[in-house]
Amino acid sequence: MGSDEAYNFVFKVVLIGESGVGKSNLLSRFTKNEFNHDSRTTIGVEFSTRTIQLKSLIIKAQIWDTAGLERYRAITSAYYRGAVGALLVYDITKHLTYESVERWLKELYDHADPHIVVMLVGNKTDLGSERSVPTEDAKDFAEKNGLLFLETSALESTNVETAFQNVLGEIHRKVSSKEVTRGSISAVSLSSPVPRAAGDPEEKKPCCRNL
Ligand SMILES: Nc1nc2c(ncn2[C@@H]2O[C@H](COP(=O)(O)OP(=O)(O)OP(=O)(O)O)[C@@H](O)[C@H]2O)c(=O)[nH]1
Ligand SMILES: [Mg+2]
């Protein structure tokens, strides 16, 4: 436990998308630099954290992961509550996982804060010869829907860092530009707008009250 850890913001980010697209491996690559070749389907909810520096600020990312499969999913509203960012993942070699992106977006907007920062993520670029979703298609879709977009490989560690960093950076930009004045984005992060001194344990849980 990092009880001496200090940070300025905690941002909750959720992973969504069909089963098998690589959500859990993107998470383990980002938080532990690990990849699991035969990972099992996620059951229930798991989360991991990683603290990153963004300019002069320390941001703690709390990343939630659940199953793409309906029967293993946790209660949806609890999963999305307080989330300020989302990675909507599909597999570039499985067109069906891309076709379901709209359904995931709908679920997300039905349950999450309307200002949530969303990135569409095409994972498994290491399997380029099996690609069935053209980059341009996904890019156009993302642009039309106001989503960030990147292609990644959790296996080769391509763009994983960049994907999370961009989402966290965009959340921070929204929060600090006061573009968002209501809803959970402001509730989560603006409860402690003043950077704290290192090791101040009293003030280190600005977000967790509403989780
Ligand atoms: N080639 C390749 N395989 C990957 C990549 N990311 C994940 N995988 C593999 O894809 C399979 C599913 O990965 P998971 O991370 O468990 O997928 P998930 O989205 O968490 O699946 P659910 O928990 O069932 O929703 C595993 O066999 C992984 O090893 C990648 O970037 N490249
Ligand atoms: Mg999983």
Automatic annotation (TrEMBL):
Residues 199-211 have a biased composition (Basic and acidic residues). It is a lipid-anchor. The lineage of its organism: Eukaryota, Metazoa, Chordata, Craniata, Vertebrata. Residues 191-211 are annotated as: Disordered. It comes from the Eukaryota. The small GTPases Rab are key regulators of intracellular membrane trafficking, from the formation of transport vesicles to their fusion with membranes. Rabs cycle between an inactive GDP-bound form and an active GTP-bound form that is able to recruit to membranes different set of downstream effectors directly responsible for vesicle formation, movement, tethering and fusion. RAB25 regulates epithelial cell differentiation, proliferation and survival, thereby playing key roles in tumorigenesis. The gene is RAB25. One of its GO terms (cellular component) is endomembrane system. Interacts (GTP-bound form) with RAB11FIP1, RAB11FIP2, RAB11FIP3 and RAB11FIP4. Interacts (via the hypervariable C-terminal region) with ITGB1 (via the cytoplasmic region); the interaction is GTP-dependent. Interacts with ITGAV. Associates with the integrin alpha-V/beta-1 heterodimer. Interacts with VPS33B. It comes from Salmo trutta. Belongs to the small GTPase superfamily. Rab family. PANTHER family: DRAB11-RELATED. Pfam families: Ras. Keywords: GTP-binding, Lipoprotein, Membrane, Nucleotide-binding, Prenylation. It is found in: Cell projection, Pseudopodium membrane; Endomembrane system. SMART domains: RAB, RAN, RAS, RHO. Its main location: membrane. GO terms for molecular function: GTP binding; GTPase activity. This is Ras-related protein Rab-25.
